[in-house]
Please model this.
Amino acid sequence: MINEVFRTLVEVTKDIPGASVENHKFCTSVHYRNVDDKSWPMIAQRVHDVLKDYPRLTLTHGRKVLEVRPLIDWDKGKAVEFLLESLGLSNANDVLPIHIGDDRTDEDAFKVLREGNRGYGILVSSVPKESKAFLSLRDTSEVKQFLKSLVRWKEQMSNVGS
Model:
Protein backbone atom coordinates (compact mmCIF):
# COMPACT_ATOMS: atom_id res chain seq x y z
CA MET A 1 0.00 0.00 0.00
CA ILE A 2 2.78 2.48 0.93
CA ASN A 3 4.68 1.64 -2.26
CA GLU A 4 1.56 2.23 -4.32
CA VAL A 5 0.92 5.60 -2.63
CA PHE A 6 4.59 6.51 -3.07
CA ARG A 7 4.45 5.87 -6.82
CA THR A 8 1.19 7.83 -7.12
CA LEU A 9 2.57 10.78 -5.14
CA VAL A 10 5.72 10.86 -7.29
CA GLU A 11 3.48 10.98 -10.36
CA VAL A 12 1.12 13.72 -9.10
CA THR A 13 3.92 15.98 -7.82
CA LYS A 14 6.45 15.59 -10.64
CA ASP A 15 5.30 18.82 -12.32
CA ILE A 16 5.88 20.91 -9.16
CA PRO A 17 9.47 22.25 -9.14
CA GLY A 18 11.28 21.46 -5.88
CA ALA A 19 8.84 18.82 -4.64
CA SER A 20 10.35 15.49 -3.66
CA VAL A 21 8.82 12.25 -2.46
CA GLU A 22 10.68 9.69 -0.36
CA ASN A 23 9.74 6.10 0.36
CA HIS A 24 10.74 5.11 3.90
CA LYS A 25 9.31 1.59 3.62
CA PHE A 26 6.71 2.13 6.37
CA CYS A 27 5.79 5.68 5.43
CA THR A 28 6.14 8.11 2.54
CA SER A 29 7.23 11.73 2.85
CA VAL A 30 6.39 14.58 0.51
CA HIS A 31 8.94 17.36 1.00
CA TYR A 32 8.14 20.90 -0.08
CA ARG A 33 11.07 22.88 1.41
CA ASN A 34 12.31 23.76 -2.06
CA VAL A 35 8.88 24.53 -3.50
CA ASP A 36 7.66 28.07 -4.18
CA ASP A 37 5.33 29.19 -1.34
CA LYS A 38 2.49 29.70 -3.82
CA SER A 39 2.54 26.00 -4.72
CA TRP A 40 2.24 24.66 -1.14
CA PRO A 41 -1.59 24.52 -1.22
CA MET A 42 -1.44 22.63 -4.53
CA ILE A 43 0.88 19.98 -3.03
CA ALA A 44 -1.34 19.61 0.04
CA GLN A 45 -4.45 19.24 -2.12
CA ARG A 46 -2.85 16.60 -4.34
CA VAL A 47 -1.68 14.58 -1.33
CA HIS A 48 -5.16 14.80 0.23
CA ASP A 49 -6.74 13.75 -3.06
CA VAL A 50 -4.52 10.65 -3.27
CA LEU A 51 -5.23 9.70 0.35
CA LYS A 52 -9.02 9.76 -0.17
CA ASP A 53 -8.63 6.29 -1.70
CA TYR A 54 -6.65 4.98 1.30
CA PRO A 55 -8.71 5.17 4.51
CA ARG A 56 -6.12 3.08 6.40
CA LEU A 57 -3.47 5.76 5.90
CA THR A 58 -3.12 9.04 7.75
CA LEU A 59 -1.34 12.31 7.06
CA THR A 60 0.95 14.05 9.55
CA HIS A 61 2.68 17.38 9.10
CA GLY A 62 6.29 18.19 9.88
CA ARG A 63 8.66 21.00 8.90
CA LYS A 64 7.71 21.51 5.26
CA VAL A 65 7.00 17.82 4.90
CA LEU A 66 3.80 15.80 4.68
CA GLU A 67 4.16 12.24 5.98
CA VAL A 68 1.80 9.48 4.89
CA ARG A 69 1.74 6.57 7.30
CA PRO A 70 -0.47 3.68 8.34
CA LEU A 71 -3.27 4.55 10.72
CA ILE A 72 -1.71 2.80 13.72
CA ASP A 73 -0.52 3.95 17.12
CA TRP A 74 3.11 4.50 16.13
CA ASP A 75 5.57 7.36 16.47
CA LYS A 76 9.32 7.92 16.73
CA GLY A 77 9.24 7.29 20.49
CA LYS A 78 7.67 3.88 19.95
CA ALA A 79 10.23 3.25 17.20
CA VAL A 80 13.09 3.97 19.63
CA GLU A 81 11.57 1.63 22.22
CA PHE A 82 11.03 -1.06 19.58
CA LEU A 83 14.62 -0.83 18.34
CA LEU A 84 16.12 -0.95 21.82
CA GLU A 85 13.96 -3.92 22.81
CA SER A 86 14.36 -5.87 19.56
CA LEU A 87 18.14 -5.40 19.65
CA GLY A 88 18.26 -6.44 23.31
CA LEU A 89 19.58 -3.06 24.38
CA SER A 90 16.76 -1.82 26.63
CA ASN A 91 18.69 -2.39 29.84
CA ALA A 92 22.25 -2.34 28.48
CA ASN A 93 24.66 -0.26 30.53
CA ASP A 94 27.21 -0.02 27.74
CA VAL A 95 24.92 1.60 25.15
CA LEU A 96 23.99 5.28 24.95
CA PRO A 97 21.06 5.87 22.60
CA ILE A 98 21.08 9.26 20.89
CA HIS A 99 18.25 10.60 18.75
CA ILE A 100 18.97 13.70 16.67
CA GLY A 101 16.06 15.48 15.04
CA ASP A 102 14.76 18.83 13.84
CA ASP A 103 11.05 18.26 13.79
CA ARG A 104 8.13 18.05 16.18
CA THR A 105 7.74 14.40 15.18
CA ASP A 106 11.07 13.80 16.96
CA GLU A 107 9.65 14.96 20.31
CA ASP A 108 8.19 11.50 21.04
CA ALA A 109 11.67 9.98 20.78
CA PHE A 110 13.17 12.76 22.91
CA LYS A 111 10.50 12.12 25.54
CA VAL A 112 11.11 8.34 25.64
CA LEU A 113 14.85 8.83 26.07
CA ARG A 114 14.48 11.54 28.73
CA GLU A 115 11.72 9.90 30.83
CA GLY A 116 13.48 6.60 31.17
CA ASN A 117 16.90 8.25 31.53
CA ARG A 118 17.75 5.92 28.65
CA GLY A 119 19.68 8.25 26.37
CA TYR A 120 19.82 11.73 24.92
CA GLY A 121 17.63 13.58 22.50
CA ILE A 122 19.27 16.36 20.53
CA LEU A 123 17.17 19.02 18.85
CA VAL A 124 18.59 20.69 15.75
CA SER A 125 17.25 24.23 15.56
CA SER A 126 18.68 27.64 14.73
CA VAL A 127 16.31 29.23 17.25
CA PRO A 128 15.59 28.29 20.88
CA LYS A 129 12.51 26.07 21.21
CA GLU A 130 10.76 24.27 24.00
CA SER A 131 11.61 20.61 23.64
CA LYS A 132 11.97 17.31 25.47
CA ALA A 133 15.47 17.10 23.99
CA PHE A 134 18.39 17.09 26.40
CA LEU A 135 20.66 19.13 24.14
CA SER A 136 20.34 21.46 21.18
CA LEU A 137 22.56 22.04 18.17
CA ARG A 138 22.09 24.94 15.78
CA ASP A 139 22.48 23.25 12.40
CA THR A 140 23.77 20.26 10.48
CA SER A 141 27.38 21.48 10.65
CA GLU A 142 27.16 21.38 14.46
CA VAL A 143 25.63 17.88 14.23
CA LYS A 144 28.58 16.80 12.10
CA GLN A 145 31.03 18.33 14.58
CA PHE A 146 29.25 16.62 17.49
CA LEU A 147 29.29 13.21 15.77
CA LYS A 148 32.97 13.58 14.91
CA SER A 149 33.74 14.38 18.55
CA LEU A 150 31.88 11.21 19.60
CA VAL A 151 34.01 9.17 17.19
CA ARG A 152 37.22 10.76 18.55
CA TRP A 153 36.08 10.07 22.13
CA LYS A 154 35.32 6.42 21.27
CA GLU A 155 38.72 6.03 19.63
CA GLN A 156 40.44 7.49 22.71
CA MET A 157 38.50 5.17 24.99
CA SER A 158 39.47 2.20 22.82
CA ASN A 159 43.15 3.20 23.02
CA VAL A 160 42.97 3.48 26.82
CA GLY A 161 41.68 -0.08 27.02
CA SER A 162 44.46 -1.54 24.86
